[in-house]
Specification:
Elements: E1 2-4, E2 7-9, H1 21-30, H2 42-49, H3 61-78, E3 81-83, E4 96-100, H4 110-126, E5 131-135, H5 149-157, H6 168-177, E6 185-190, H7 199-206, E7 211-218, E8 224-232, E9 237-244, E10 249-256, E11 261-268, E12 275-280, H8 284-287, E13 290-295, E14 304-306, E15 314-320, H9 335-341, E16 345-348, H10 355-364, E17 369-373, H11 380-391, E18 395-399, H12 402-405, E19 422-423, E20 434-435, E21 455-456, E22 458-459, H13 468-471, E23 472-475, E24 481-488, E25 491-496, H14 511-522, E26 538-539, E27 541-545, E28 551-553, E29 561-562, E30 576-580, E31 583-587, E32 607-612, H15 622-643, H16 649-660, H17 663-668, H18 684-692, E33 697-699, H19 704-724, E34 733-735, E35 747-751, H20 761-772, E36 776-780, H21 797-807, E37 814-816, E38 843-845
Parallel strand pairs: 4-5, 4-6, 6-7, 7-32, 15-16, 15-17, 17-18, 18-25, 33-34, 33-35, 35-36
Antiparallel strand pairs: 1-2, 2-3, 8-9, 9-12, 10-11, 10-13, 13-14, 19-22, 20-21, 23-24, 24-25, 26-29, 27-28, 27-30, 30-31, 37-38
Helix pairs in contact: 1-3, 3-15, 4-5, 6-7, 10-11, 15-16
Length: 848
C-alpha cells in the first residue's frame, strides 16, 4: 500500500504504535526511581572506606534517546516499509488516461503493470489531474471514468488479466470519446509488448487533437512461448509452438482428463524462425485420451491448448440390415467394423429393431458418422431427417451386400449402381479375383500402403459416368471402383463396393481395412456444426482456460458458444471446452501459423515518450530496520555491563566479546529470508518414516496369536523378497484400519478372526478407499477345506465373517484365479498358490 510518495508500507496501520514512544520515554525516566535522602553523619566516614558504587537517580538523556531510537526502529520495521521509484508527468493539468493491456500475455507482467499504474495515479493526484482508467480486455460498457485517485485505485485493484486478446482500438476509442473538446490529455499505454493486428487502427485513434502527450510503456523482452495448433496425425500428436524473443527450446506436456501425464516433447527453435513443431509419439489409444497440452513452466493461457473430439474419438452409429446371428459372430456384417473402430471411436447402436425408427433414433444422438451395412431402400420416415443430417456435415458410410445390390434408384449412394452383383474368380466365372490397385495420391487413403494380399471376389459395379474417377477413392487393378464418395452439402456419402464381412473379399480381415476406416472417420467432425434440425449448434461452457493456463470450471459470466468455422475467443467466450463429458468443442487462443512479434512504438503527430515499467521488487527496509534495532540493543547491553562496577574486568570483557559476536548476525539479517511458520502437522514424522522405505502391513485383530503369526509370516516374506528380488523392504508393521493411513503400504494382509469384533464403518471405509486408490488387500480366512464363496450351508465361520465384511464395502465380484492371471506369471509360472496349506483356494477380482 502506498502511503507516502515515494515510500510504501506493507502495514501502515502499525505506525499507530508511535504514540507509545512518549510512554516509553516516561517509563525510562522514572526507572530506576529516585533514591530517598537521609541525613546520617557517620556515613561520611563510611563513604571514604567503601567503594564508590552509586546508582544514578535518573537515566542519562543519551541512553534514553538510544532506547527510544531502538523502539522506533522496531515500530517502523513492523510496517514493512520500502522505497519505490516513481513516475513523473509533465506540468499540464489535462486529464490522465491510463490504458492497461490486460490480455493473456500481460499475465507475466501483471505486478509491474499494477505498480506502474499506482504510481501514475499517485502522480496524477499530486498534480490534481482527473483520471481515466481502462483495460483493453474488458467489456465496452465498463466504467472508465473520470475517477478521483481513490476510486481509480479501487478500479485498478479489481482488474486482472483475461485469457483473451487485447482490443486496443475499441477501448482507446471508447475512452477518448468521453473526453471534452481540447482536453489536452496525457495518455499512458501500459502495453503487454505483443503486437496486435489492430495496432495501426488503434494508433490512428491516438493521433487526435485531444492528446497532448503519449507515454508508451514497454515491458522487458523476456522470452516465452504459446501453442499455435495441435494435430493428431496417424503417427503422432504434432504441436506447433510460437515463440516470443530469443527462446531456444520449450518442453510440451500432454495430459488426459484426469491430469495424468500422457507424454512430452522437446521443441527446438532454429535461427530466427517464429515457430517450431514437435511430436508426441504415443499409441492412438493414448493420444485419444489427451485433453490438454501445456508448455512446461509457463503460466499463461496461451501456453495451454485444449483438444476436443475433433482431434479424438468420433461418435459413430452402426446400423445393419442383416438379421442378428449371435451363433456366428464372424459372419455378422458389423463384427469387423466394430473391431476396427473401437480403439478410436465411440460406437452408438439403436435399441429399436424397426429400421425407420432406429435410423431416426441414431440421428438424434448427433453422430459424426453413420455406418450402414447392407441396407437397401431407406424407409420413408427416415429419408428427410437423414438428408438434413448429411447436408449439415454428417458422413454416411455404406457397405454393399445382397440387399443393396438388389436396390433400384437409391438417392443415398455416391454413384449410380448396376443392379445385381459381379462375381470374380468363381467356378462359373472366367475372371479371377482382383487385387487392390494403388491408392490415388490425392485421395484420403494416399498415406496407406497398397495391400498386396487383399483380393476381391465379388462387388457391386458403378455405372460409367463422367466424373466417376473424381468420386473414386480406391479401385481394383481392373479399374472398377472399390470405394466411391460424393459430397452432399457439408457432408459426404461414401460407399464400399464390398461387404463389411469376409464374404466378398478378405479386406475386412486385413490391417488396411482398419486404416481405411480410420482415415474415413477422421474426416468427420464429432459434434457437427449444426443440430439435427439444421439450426446452429450452441454449447454451454464446460472447462475454461484461466489466465494462468489452468483448466477449471467455467466462470459465471461465460456465455454459450455458437459453433462455426470462424470461432474466436472473447470475454463472453473465453478459451476452453464447450459442451459436456459426452461431447465438447475446443476453443483456443491461437490459430495455426500465429506469430508472436514485439509491439512497435506508435509513430504519432503528438509527442510520444517511451517509458520503462516501475518494478515492484523494490528493496524492503524491514530487514535493515530490524538489524539497526538489534545493534542498538547490543550497544545498550554493552553500556549496562560496562557501568556495573560489581562485575570484575574479566567478566565485563567476556560479556562484551560475547555480545560483539552477535553483531555479524545483525549485519547479515537483511539479506536472510525470514523463516516461514512451520506447517508441520501431527503424524508428519510417522508419514515420512512410512514412505522412506517400502514395507508390508497387516491388520491388527486384537488376537495375540493371530497378530503374532501375521507379523512372523510377513517378516518371512520380507526376507524372501530381499533374497530373491532387488527390493529392500523394511520390517512389516501392524495397522489399525480405522485410523491408519494405508496409502503408504503396497499390500495389506488381513487375517479374518471369526470371534473378533466386526470392523467399524470407519475401518471399512478406509480399506475401501485404499483399494479404490490401487492398493491390494489379501483377506485370509485360514480355514483350509471349507472356504467357499458359494451359498452352501457348510461355509466356515471365517468365511461368513468375511462375507459380512465385504457386504459393507464396494468390492467387485470375485472368482478363482484364472490360469492366465498375472499372478500366475509373476517371477515364476505358478500352477497353484501355497499359503497356510497346500492347495488352498485363492480368489481375486473378477476380470470383466
Amino acid at each position: 500500500m502506498s502511503w507516502l510518495v515515494p515510500i510504501s508500507a506493507g502495514y501502515p496501520l502499525a505506525l499507530a504504535a508511535l504514540v507509545l514512544l512518549p510512554l516509553i520515554w516516561w517509563l525510562l525516566k522514572v526507572m530506576p526511581p529516585k533514591p530517598d535522602l537521609e541525613i546520617f553523619p557517620p556515613l561520611k566516614t563510611l563513604a571514604k572506606v567503601l567503594k564508590n558504587d552509586n546508582t544514578p537517580h535518573k537515566t542519562p538523556w543519551w541512553l534514553t534517546l538510544l532506547r527510544m531510537m531502538m523502539a522506533a526502529a522496531v515500530i517502523f520495521a513492523i510496517t514493512d516499509p520500502g522505497f519505490n521509484r516513481d513516475v513523473k508527468l509533465d506540468g499540464s493539468k489535462g486529464p490522465l488516461i491510463i490504458v492497461l493491456d490486460n490480455g493473456w500475455p500481460s499475465k507475466r507482467i501483471e505486478a509491474m503493470q499494477r505498480t506502474t499504474a499506482e504510481s501514475l495515479i499517485t502522480e496524477a493526484a499530486r498534480t490534481e489531474r482527473v483520471i481515466y482508467l481502462a483495460a483493453t480486455s474488458q467489456a465496452i460498457a465498463t466504467d472508465t471514468g473520470p475517477f478521483d485517485p481513490d476510486t481509480a485505485r479501487k478500479h485498478l485493484a479489481s482488474l486482472t488479466s483475461s485469457p483473451v486478446f487485447a482490443d486496443r482500438k475499441t477501448i482507446i476509442a471508447n475512452v477518448i470519446s468521453k473526453l471534452p473538446e481540447n482536453a489536452n490529455a496525457t495518455i499512458a499505454v501500459l502495453s503487454d509488448g505483443i503486437s496486435n493486428p489492430q495496432d495501426e487502427a488503434a494508433f490512428a485513434v491516438l493521433d487526435t487533437s485531444k492528446m497532448a502527450n503519449t507515454l508508451w510503456y514497454a515491458p522487458p523482452q523476456a522470452p516465452f512461448a504459446a501453442i499455435a495448433s495441435v494435430k493428431n496425425t496417424s503417427e503422432a500428436l504434432e504441436i506447433e509452438v510460437a515463440r516470443f524473443g530469443k527462446l531456444d527450446e520449450a518442453s510440451v506436456i500432454a495430459f488426459d482428463g484426469k491430469s495424468h501425464r500422457i507424454g512430452e516433447a522437446k521443441i527446438t527453435f532454429n535461427g530466427s524462425e517464429p515457430s517450431s513443431t514437435g511430436k508426441i509419439l504415443a499409441p492412438i489409444e493414448l493420444r485419444n485420451d489427451i485433453q490438454s497440452v501445456t508448455i512446461e513452466g509457463q503460466k499463461l493461457s496461451g501456453a495451454t491448448y485444449v483438444l476436443d473430439d475433433n482431434l479424438k474419438r468420433r461418435r459413430v452409429a452402426l446400423l445393419s440390415g442383416a438379421d442378428g446371428d449371435l451363433a456366428q459372430p464372424l459372419l455378422s456384417p458389423l463384427y469387423y467394423i466394430r473391431k476396427a473402430i473401437e480403439p478410436f471411436a465411440d460406437i452408438v447402436t439403436p435399441r429399436n429393431l424397426d429400421l425407420s425408427a432406429s435410423l431416426v433414433e441414431l440421428i438424434a444422438t448427433n453422430p459424426s458418422v453413420i455406418i450402414m451395412a447392407d441396407i437397401g431402400a431407406m424407409p420413408e420416415p427416415s429419408v428427410k431427417p437423414l438428408e438434413t443430417w448429411i447436408e449439415n456435415g454428417g458422413i454416411l458410410l455404406r457397405f454393399a451386400g445382397p440387399r443393396l445390390a438388389a436396390t433400384v434408384d437409391d438417392k443415398f449412394l455416391p454413384v449410380i449402381l448396376r443392379q445385381g452383383e459381379r462375381a470374380l474368380g468363381g467356378t462359373m466365372s472366367w475372371t479371377e479375383a482382383q487385387p487392390v490397385a494403388e491408392f490415388p495420391k490425392t485421395g484420403p487413403f494416399a498415406s496407406i500402403p497398397t495391400p498386396k494380399d487383399v483380393t476381391v471376389t465379388r462387388q457391386v459395379l458403378a455405372e460409367p459416368e463422367s466424373g466417376l474417377s473424381d468420386k473414386t477413392w480406391a479401385s481394383l487393378t481392373d479399374g472398377t471402383p472399390l470405394v466411391t464418395a460424393d459430397n452432399r452439402g457439408k457432408g459426404q456419402i461414401i460407399l464400399f463396393h464390398v461387404t463389411p464381412q469376409a464374404t466378398w473379399s478378405n479386406l475386412p480381415i486385413s490391417g488396411t481395412f482398419v486404416e481405411m476406416l480410420r482415415q474415413t472417420i477422421a474426416l468427420a467432425s464429432t459434434t457437427g456444426q449444426r443440430n439435427a434440425d439444421g439450426s446452429k449448434l450452441s454449447l454451454k461452457p464446460w472447462r475454461i482456460i484461466a489466465n494462468d493456463g489452468a483448466i477449471g470450471p467455467a466462470p459465471a459470466d461465460a456465455q454459450p458458444l455458437e459453433v462455426s468455422d470462424k470461432m474466436i475467443s472473447t470475454l463472453q467466450n473465453p478459451p476452453g471446452l464447450y459442451g459436456n463429458e459426452d461431447g465438447a468443442v475446443a476453443l483456443n487462443l491461437l490459430k495455426s501459423g500465429a506469430k508472436l512479434e514485439p509491439a512497435l512504438v506508435p509513430m504519432l503527430k503528438t509527442k510520444v515518450q517511451t517509458q520503462d515499467y516501475v518494478t515492484a521488487d523494490t528493496k524492503s527496509w524491514k530487514g535493515p530496520l530490524l538489524g539497526l534495532a538489534a545493534l542498538l540493543l547490543i550497544l545498550d547491553c554493552l553500556i549496562m555491563i560496562w557501568t556495573k562496577r560489581q562485575l570484575s574486568s574479566t567478566l565485563k570483557v567476556a560479556a562484551a566479546l560475547l555480545l560483539i559476536g552477535f553483531i555479524p548476525l545483525t549485519v547479515l539479517a537483511p539479506t536472510l529470508s525470514y523463516a516461514q511458520q512451520s506447517d508441520a502437522k501431527a503424524g508428519d514424522q510417522e508419514a515420512v518414516e512410512a514412505i522412506s522405505k517400502t514395507r508390508l502391513a497387516y491388520i491388527i485383530t486384537g488376537n495375540t496369536d493371530i497378530d503374532r503369526v501375521s507379523k512372523e509370516g510377513l517378516e518371512g516374506l520380507t526376507l524372501f523378497l530381499k533374497d530373491k528380488t532387488a527390493l529392500e523392504p523394511a520390517d512389516p508393521v501392524g495397522v489399525d484400519p480405522a485410523t491408519a493411513e494405508l496409502t503408504f503400504y503396497p499390500m495389506v494382509y488381513w487375517p479374518i478372526d471369526p470371534d473378533g469384533t466386526m470392523p467399524s464403518k470407519e475401518a471399512l471405509a478406509n480399506i475401501d478407499a485404499y483399494m479404490q486408490a490401487g492398493g491390494s488387500v489379501l483377506f485370509d480366512t485360514r480355514d483350509q477345506g471349507s472356504a467357499s464363496f458359494t451359498l452352501n450351508d457348510d461355509t466356515s465361520p471365517a468365511t461368513r465373517r468375511l462375507r459380512e465384511i465385504l457386504d459393507g464395502m464396494n468390492v467387485p465380484p470375485l472368482e478363482p484365479v484364472p490360469s492366465d492371471h498375472v499372478l500366475t506369471k509373476s517371477f515364476y509360472l505358478l500352477k497353484d498358490f501355497v499359503g497356510h496349506y497346500a492347495g488352498s483356494p485363492l480368489w481375486v477380482e473378477q476380470n470383466q
